[in-house]
Amino acid sequence: MIEVNNLTVRYGGVMALDDISLIIPDRKVISIVGANGAGKSTTINAISGMVNITRGGIFLDGKSLHLPPHKIVQKGVVQVPEGRKIFSSITVKENLILGAYQMNDKHRIEENMKKVFEQYPVLEARQNQPGGTLSGGEQQMLAIARALMSEPNHLLLDEPSLGLAPMLVSGIFKMIQDLNKKGLTILLVEQNAQKALSIADFAYVFETGRMVSKGPGKEIAEDPIVKKAYLGIEE
């Protein structure tokens, strides 16, 4: 379980997060929704060790997660960044190998590659193609598969549907649900609030760096204020 306690993050004089606390229980899908600039990505980046914390603490199973990013990955907490950030000029297979860069066991890497290819056959079929030749949806699949190569327990997904055609978005969310069913804990940061809330066990709503609402995903999705502000639904 990941616990975020009284987290505050400043960028210079700008307050990006103001006293945020949340819990990410094991084997659950937790969503953070909100508009641009709400602090969603900052939260994920703080958990991943990518931004400096001004105040507060982050804990994994009761132990501080205030560590360098590569040490956090070793603890089984892995981020799939916004915009996918795959390496477009190297092959799909090489992208996947980079996901296991902290492993020294060649056999283990090969076994993980086999599992990924079984899960995502399109990547096996295109393993020798440059990553940049894949479609947007396939690149997102590759970004998630690359994260899986490091054998995470907790997967932090930052805007996985960003820039994808609507017909591909449902496939990405099904992929997330399938990963959760296999035992992965998921923290999902997503602008597509309707989709995110539909699969969330629990959700937090952020606005300009503060938490304004929280509750089971389906309850939050029916909240009139949330529906108006984030789902574009007037009652």
Blueprint (SSEs and pairs):
Elements: E1 2-11, E2 14-24, E3 29-33, H1 40-47, E4 55-60, E5 63-64, H2 69-74, E6 77-80, H3 92-99, H4 106-119, H5 121-125, H6 136-148, E7 154-158, H7 166-181, E8 185-189, H8 193-199, E9 202-207, E10 210-215, H9 217-221, H10 224-230
Parallel strand pairs: 3-8, 3-9, 6-7, 7-8
Antiparallel strand pairs: 1-2, 1-4, 4-5, 9-10
Describe what you observe in this structure.
With 235 residues, the chain is of the alpha/beta class. It has one domain: P-loop containing nucleotide triphosphate hydrolases (Rossmann fold). It has ten helices and ten strands. Strands 6-7-8-3-9-10 form a six-stranded mixed sheet, with helices on both faces. Helix 3 (92-99) runs parallel beside helix 6 (136-148).
Provide key terms for this protein:
alpha/beta; Rossmann fold; four-stranded antiparallel sheet; 38% helix
Q: Helicity level, as a percent range? A: 25-40%
Number of helical segments?
Answer: 10
How much strand content do the residues show? 25-35%
Predict the CATH topology.
Rossmann fold
Cα-to-Cα separation, first versus last residue: 37 Å
Output the helix-strand order.
Answer: EEEHEEHEHHHHEHEHEEHH
Gyration radius, rounded? 18 Å
Provide the CATH architecture: 3-Layer(aba) Sandwich
Number of strands: 10
Low-confidence stretches: none
Give a short synopsis of this structure:
By secondary structure, the chain is α/β, with parallel strands linked by helices. The protein is built from 10 helices and 10 strands. The strands form 2 sheets. Strands 6-7-8-3-9-10 form a 6-stranded mixed β-sheet, with helices on both faces. It has a 4-stranded antiparallel β-sheet with strand order 2-1-4-5, covered by helices on one side.
